[in-house]
Amino acid sequence: MIRKAHAGDIDRVAEIYEAIHASEERGELTVGWARGVYPVRETARAAVERSDLFVSERAGRVETAAILNQIQVPEYAQCDWKYPAPLEQVMVLHTLVVDPAAQAGGLGTELVGFYEQYAREQGCPYLRMDTQAKNTLARSFYRKLGFWEAGMVSCTFNNIPGVKLVCLEKKL
């Protein structure tokens, strides 16, 4: 079940962030995030306050989370989008996370499907998101789901220096 997150979900989402940081530190994942910098508990708290954090549960336990809104980060202006869409018609996915202990169960695909349906319901036929260039698993995953890599921007992103930000898009 996918639903809007509430304040009671913040700790669990923060646990997933920490599990991803730990997996990356052990060399099991290459995401490009930084523990204590991004994402952190405050990332989830702020999204709950904006009412744009969504979570999915299995057996009553939150296993995935993502932020869905129309906020395009400033770095997107440097990208050569295939679909130059009006701002009000773009839905953006931020910080999609799946608990490393629950990966390979289709949860990420399910959440992206929800993102697409949510965008349709909000009148947004254009989807945008980003990932780091070194996150080859995410890049492959999104490609399989029909997203196009519109470009790469070198920047400091979410206070993490030296990021090569890959901008992705899809038209529904």
Give a description of the structure:
The protein has helices at residues 10-25, 41-50, 107-121, 136-144, and strands spanning 2-4, 53-58, 61-69, 90-98, 126-132, 148-157, 160-171. The chain is an alpha+beta fold. The mean pLDDT is 96.
Radius of gyration: 15 Å
Percent of residues in β-strands: 25-35%
Beta-strand segment tally: 7
Strands of the widest sheet, in order across it, are 1-2-3-4-5-7-6
The portion of residues assigned to helices is: 25-40%
What does the main sheet amount to?
7 strands, mixed
Large-scale geometry: globular
Q: Which sequence of SSEs, written as H and E, runs from N to C?
A: EHHEEEHEHEE
Return the average pLDDT rounded to an integer: 96
Separation, N- and C-terminal Cα atoms: 23 Å
How many helix segments?
4
Q: What structural class do you assign from the helix and strand content?
A: alpha+beta
Unreliable spans are none
